[in-house]
Structures are given as structure tokens and as C-alpha cells.
């Protein structure tokens, strides 16, 4: 048995765990990160890829923004398409200069693993049997196996950054959490294709046959999504069938459509909205997908993970520097204010742009009117724009020990 101690034990090396580890490092706080998958798996996993302005600024302020700055695609606007017509929303003009940046989550994770490695602080991949215990004590523990031997990691605090299917949230006694949940009667079939993006900006489409989304990863790679039933077997979709349906839904009357190319990755993901509250139990703090899931339509998942850990870093800094638990006690409420606004936005984007199996003709006409209003009213476009580029973080960068910017 290997026994170790650290200040903050972090379960999970996704965006939440890695960003938190680096924020703590910048504040001179020790951490150990414990991840159950391999480095390659974590880096290769294809996920979403839209960074809010605040997430880009946060990564820059943390000194881990080099990759985003170099290879991220900054978008000043997006398109909403319905009834065969694309309508542009100018995010930058409507938000006083803000934008979103398309940069794959796997690239974010790769950059953060490199930054972690450069600090020399511990990050264990391919751990097994990870468990957390003694959460109500002042010395909670993470137990795991690594390289064939048992490890016990004593911590002052544990950060549960282990995603929706992790072990931390289920370790909280069920009576202590309230779960708010909504499942959608559809999922997204997503592909990566070797094709130059035919638009510089994202296109969200509501078509009679359902939702479709045009996105990209690089000047040579297009990322596309289609609304499908939530349990749709991906094997039922040949590459030709995927392209037929993409083109049917996305082609607009002026002839715009995505470029076709070799499909290199395809998968189906169900969609849900989920919040577990409070995001804390004793000395265990949940952050990111471990505490909440949003449907991908608002592109908020990774960005919420980033805003959670900024709040957590501030709280831990306050504890170690001033011996104050005030910010730790406020952690959950502070995060949940922003989480719920992102939940509401993601639900609204999702329900406005998808076709539900149980919808009525009235519902569909209301959706069209919603989109017509959205794309013709400056007030409505401004509301979408300020939420899409990201509502303000709840705490300042300085309060978490970073240079100004938040
Ligand atoms: N022990 C250790 N690590 C675990 C365990 C476990 N029992 N269970 C899960 N993990 C790891 C996963 O392998 C993953 O690397 O925790 C990490 C969680 O990362 P994410 O799922 O990426 O969650 P998070 O860091 O909160 O980031 C949120 O990820 O799911 C996307 O779209 C979502 O963009 C959002 C972002
Ligand atoms: C993506 O590029 O993967 C993407 C873009 C916008 C979304 C969701 C996913 O809303």
C-alpha cells in the first residue's frame, strides 16, 4: 500500500480537473490528479469544441492559451437557418467585441496535460477501482490502484471532476442531493469529415425533418450533427445515408450546403439536462459534468466546467491564504446561479431548434415564429449573443490569483 498526502485530491483529468489543477498550481496549492483512462484515450476522445470568450480569456490568463490562440478559430457570428434561409447573428457587434472560439475539447485537454506535466505535479492515468471516502472528515481519502499496487491519498479536500459517470457524485448519500433532470426524446448523430468547411461560421438549422448543425474543427475538417432518435444504432447509418440527410436538412435556397468528404468518426449521443445540488458534500466539491449536464445545443458544457473551477480555485485560495471557509461555503450557490442560466439557455436553444415526436402543428408554427422573431429583432439577437458568447463569470480572475481579465 502506497500512502500519500496532498492538499487537494482531484478525481478526473477532463477539462474541469486539469484546469483546477493548474489554477491551484498557480496559487502554490498542491494537488494530485487521478484519472481512470489512458492519456491517449483522454486526448483522442471526440467532444464538443466551442469556447466562450471568458473561457478563452481564462486560459490565456492561466498561461495555457497558446494552442487556442494559435489554432483556435475565432468566430464573430453564427447563422440560424429555417425555411431554407440562413440568418446571420453578429455576436461581436452585439456584445461589444466578444466572440466564440472553435477549438476541440480534446485539444484543450492535450494543452492542459502538457501544462500539468511541465509543473512536475502528479497526474496518474489508468488508475483502477477509484473510490472516495470519509467525506465528512477533515481528511477525506481517495483510494485507487495504479500499476498493480494499492494507493491511499489523504487530502484536505477532494474535487470530484470525474464527469457524469464518475464515482464522486454517487458517493454522496442520496438524501443529501436534489437532482433536477430532463431527458430529450432525441439525440445527435455527430460526424467528423475530411472536408473544408463551406462556411466560416456555425449554422444551426431547424428543418422539417429535424435539427442539423454545421460546425468545424480546422480549415480542413468539418463537424456536423443531425437530430436522430436517442437510441438510434449508428450502424443503421451508412456514410451515404448520413450525407443524404445532412444535405437535405442543411441546403438553403441560395444553394449553400456543406462540403462532402471522407467520414473519419461517427457516433450518437443522447441529450439531457441534469443538475445535482448542492455541488458539495462535506469536503467533496463537485465541478463540471460531475454536477451538471447540458444538452450540446448551447455549446456550454466545457465552459461551465471552466467557470465552476474558477469559483473553486478562489475558494481554496481563500482557505489556504486566509484560513477562511466563507467562499467554500458559498461555492455551490455561486456556481449554480451561472449553471441554471446556462441550463435555461441550453434548454431554450434545444427546444426551439428540434422537432419533438409529440409536438403539435401549433408547436411547430410557434418554433418558426420564435426563430423569425429571433432573427429580426435586435433585442432578441442581443439576448442570444450575450448568452452564446457566455454570461459573465461569477467571480473575478484576480480573486482566483490570476492577472485581471475576467
Ligand atoms: N476515476 C477517475 N477518473 C474518472 C472516473 C473515475 N471513477 N470516472 C470518470 N473519470 C474521468 C473521465 O475518464 C474523464 O477524463 O473523469 C474525466 C471527466 O471529464 P469530462 O467528462 O470531460 O468532464 P469535465 O471535466 O467536467 O468537462 C465537462 O466534458 O463531457 C464534456 O461536454 C462536456 O464539455 C463538457 C466537459
Ligand atoms: C461542435 O463543434 O462540436 C459543436 C458546436 C456547437 C454546438 C455543439 C457542438 O452547439
Structural class: alpha+beta
The residue fraction in helices comes out at 25-40%
The Rg value, from CA coordinates, equals: 21 Å
Order of helices and strands: EHEHEHHEEEHEHEEEEEEEEHEEEEHHHH
Strand content: 25-35%
Give the low-confidence spans.
Answer: none
Overall shape: it is globular
What's the main sheet like? 8 strands, mixed
Q: What is the tally of beta strands?
A: 19
Give the distinct bound molecules: adenosine-5-diphosphoribose, P-hydroxybenzoic acid
Structure overview:
The chain has 406 residues and is an alpha+beta fold. It is built from eleven helices and 19 strands. Strands 1, 2, 8, 9, 10, 11, 17 and 18 form an eight-stranded mixed β-sheet that branches. Strands 6-5-13-14-15-12-16-19 form an eight-stranded mixed β-sheet. α1 runs parallel beside α6, α1 packs parallel to α8 and α8 runs antiparallel to α9. The longest helix is centred in the last third of the chain and has 28 residues. The protein starts with a strand and ends in an 18-residue tail after the last helix. The model has no long low-confidence stretch (mean pLDDT 97). Bound molecules: adenosine-5-diphosphoribose (APR) and P-hydroxybenzoic acid (PHB). Adenosine-5-diphosphoribose binds next to α1 and α8.
